[in-house]
Amino acid sequence: MNDLRFHVLSCIEHERLAFELLELRTRGQYLVRFRGLSRQEQAEWDRRERAALSRLVDHELEYGCGR
Question: What is the pTM of this model?
């Protein structure tokens, strides 16, 4: 029973991490489209996106709940 509850919670975490990544990508695209980004800003958005993707992949590897 505890394993099932943990698996459901880990999938909720997976969804949260996937949404975080999607939100970062979408915000970055809007910024580029509407005002453009300096090289420094683009580097920061790239770093944030890589970090979000890394958290999602790490979660998938640890809990096996990727889709």
Answer: 0.79
